[in-house]
Amino acid sequence: MLAMFFWSFVIGGIICMIGQLIMDSFKLTPGHTLSLLVVLGAILAGFGLYEPLIDFAGAGATVPITSFGNSLVKGAMAEADKHGLVGVMTGMFEVTSSGISAAIVFGFIGALIFKPKG
To answer: Where would you find the membrane-spanning parts of this chain (predicted)?
Structure first.
């Protein structure tokens, strides 16, 4: 039991440390860093590496923002198996909060249409 708490703390701390190092080293804003961590979690989920991390670290891997990227990919892949290409979008909305997912999708579309300042 104590080992579970230890590894959860260590893995969660490492994820947060990576985010802080990204912000400090590359002079990125917190929003850019947050987006980068979500994408990193999605990439790890796409390669099947995030679920073993969750099994090992528990809340240390599910609480940080990288888990949101994992949830998006997991939902999209599950629905893609059932409904094809349409399921990719509906899966993201089904598994995660639709409000947060919509903010990400429309924020991305807005960034493509307009010139974001940063």
So the answer is: 6-26, 33-50, 95-114
Condensed to tens digits (0 to 9), the pLDDT of residues 44-93 reads: 999 999 999 999 999 999 888 898 888 888 888 888 888 888 778 777 76
| Residue 118 maps to a domain | no
DSSP, collapsed to helix, strand or coil, labels residue 96 as: coil
Check pLDDT > 80 for residue 106.
Answer: yes
CA 60 to chain centre: 14
Instruction: Kindly tell me the number of DSSP H helices and DSSP E strands found in the chain.
Output: 7, 0
Work out how many domains the chain is built from and give that number: 1
Identify the burial level of 15 via C-beta atoms within 10 angstroms of its C-beta, where 0-12 means exposed, 13-18 middle and 19 or more buried. buried
Residue that the structure tokens 């701390």 belong to = 13
